[in-house]
What does this fold into?
Amino acid sequence: MINKEKIKNSTVNEIIEEYPYTESFFEDQKLAVDDQDKSLREIFSELTVEEKEDVVFDIDKFASSLVSHISNMQEFLGENDSVVGKLSIMPGKDKDGKQENYSKLDIKSGEIISIVGPTGSGKSRLLADIEWTAQGDTPTDRQILINDEVPDKKWRFTGGKKLVAQLSQNMNFVMDLSVMEFLNLHAESRLIDNQEEVVERIFSEANQLAGEQFGRDTQITSLSGGQSRALMIADTAILSSSPIILIDEIENAGINREKALELLVGEEKIVLMATHDPILALMGDKRIIINNGGIKDIIETTTEEKELMKELKVLDKVLMDLRDDLRYGKNLSRISEELAAVKNA
Amino acid sequence: MNLVTFSGPPSSGKTAVILKTIEAIQQRDLKVGVVKFDCLYTNDDEVYRKAGVPVKKGLSGSLCPDHYFVSNIEEVVQWGKERELDLLITESAGLCNRCSPYIKDIKAICVIDNLSGINTPKKIGPMLKTADIVVITKGDIVSQAEREVFASRVSTVNPDAMVMNVNGLTGQGAYEFSTLLYDDQDHIETVTGKKLRFSMPSAMCSYCLGETRIGEEHQLGNVRKIELGDE
It folds into this structure.
C-alpha cells in the first residue's frame, strides 16, 4: 500500500517517475502545477481560490484519490495473473421458477458458443449474469465460476477491467479521429509496451476482415458498416482487456465473418454469440437454447450439421455473387434448374 | 428510509436508468419515490407516474438548480417519510457540469453517457469527482474501444468510484446496479445538520440581483474576468 503522507511530501516529478501513468491523472484532475519540483503540499498551499475550485479536492482527498488511482492501475497492469481459462455456468431457474435442465456448462478459452432463442427469451439476462459474475444473487439464481472458483469481486466494479467486451449490431464510432489516432488512443489507455507493433497488427487484421480496404488516415466515422465492424472486431480481439467477448449477430455484409471469429478465438478469448443466422450458429462448438428465461438445452454441433454448413456456405456464396453482380451493373441470370426444382418441391 | 441522490448532465439517461432500476427494486417489495429537480421544464414526472412511482417535481426557474435543491432537500425528505417510502431518489440535472448536490453520508450517483465524448469526464467537476458510483449509459451504440477509453478516463478523474455500465433502454445492468442502492440498515430521518460534499456554484454579483445592463460600471460583487492577454 502506498503511503498517503509520503505522497503529500513528494514532488510531482518524483511521483511521475515512480508511477509514470500518473501523468494523465495530474492532467485530468486539472491541478495547476507551475513547477513539477514542488511537493504536493507546497502546490496545494499556493493554490488560488479559483484553482482550488477547479481541482475540487483538498490535499487530503487529492492524495487519497491519487493513492486509489495508483492501486487501480497496479491491479490493471497485473492482469496477466488473472487469466480466464474456463468459464462455468451453474444452473439456476427459468421465469416460472423451474430448475434449469443441465448440470454444469463449461466454456474454455478459444471456444465459440452460440446462443439461440426468440426475442425476450432471456439471452440478455444470461449475458448479464456472466458479466456480473452472478452468485445466486440475480433473478435467475445462476452461479458463474471462473477457473472453477468463485470469482473475485473486482470483475464487478472496476472501471478499466471488465469481464465481458461487447460487439453489437448498432455500435458506431463516435470520435472524430483517424483510424491510426483511434487505435493509438485505445492502446495508450491500456498502457501496453509494444504499442506501435500492436496497432499495426490491428490495422492489417482489420483490413483482412473487411471486404473493402481502408487507409490509416481514414476518419473512423466515415468507415462503411463492414469496415467499422472489421475494425471493431480486430481491435476488440487484440486490444480489449476483457477475456470474454459477447457478440450480438454479425451482419453478413462487407466482412469475412469466419475469419473474424477465427481471429477472436485465436486470441484465446471466450466467444459467446447471440444469433439467428444458421451459418454463424453452426460455427459455434455448442449452442445454448434459451426459452422462458432458462437454458432449455445445450446442443453440441453434430458432424451432420458441420456438413450442412458447407452447403449453407455455397448458398451464401451464390447470394453474395448475385449482390456483387448487381452492384457492378450486370444482368442477373438464373442459377440452375436443380435449385428451382428444390424450391418448388 | 434510504435516500439516494442522482445527478448528471442533461439527456445523459438519468430518468431511464432510474426507471429500470426501480423496476428491479419493486420486485423486492420496496416502495420507491422520486423527486425530480429541473430548471425550466420537465415532463419526467409524468413518466414516473405512468410507472406507478410516487413523484414530485421542482423547477428552479431563475435560480441556480443546485441552490434550489439544497434549500428544499429537507422538505423533500419529509415528503418521502410521510409517504412511508423505503427508498427516496432525488434526480437533478447538472446543467453547467459544475453541479454538486451530493451530501456527506448520502449515496451519490453520477450518470454520464458514452456519447458525450471522451474529454467529458475531465469537463465535469465535483458532480463526477465526488460521486460514489458512476453509471455510464448508452454503451450499446458506441464501439467497445470507446467504452473502454471512456471508462478509464472516468476512473482517472474519480479513482474511488465504482464504475458501472447500465443500459437505460434494455435495462442491462440495472438489476445489478439496484442491489447497490438499498441498504436495510440505513435510516434517514432528516438531513438537517448534514453537510454538502463540496460547495455549490457560487456567485453574488449585480447580475444575480437582476441587473441587465452590460458594462464594467454595472458589475459589482463576485466578478471574474477572462484572460485575453498575449501569452
Observations:
- Chain A has 15 helices and nine strands.
- The longest helix of chain A spans residues 303-327.
- Strands of chain A lie at 86-90, 105-108, 112-116, 143-146, 164-167, 244-248, 270-274, 286-291, 294-300.
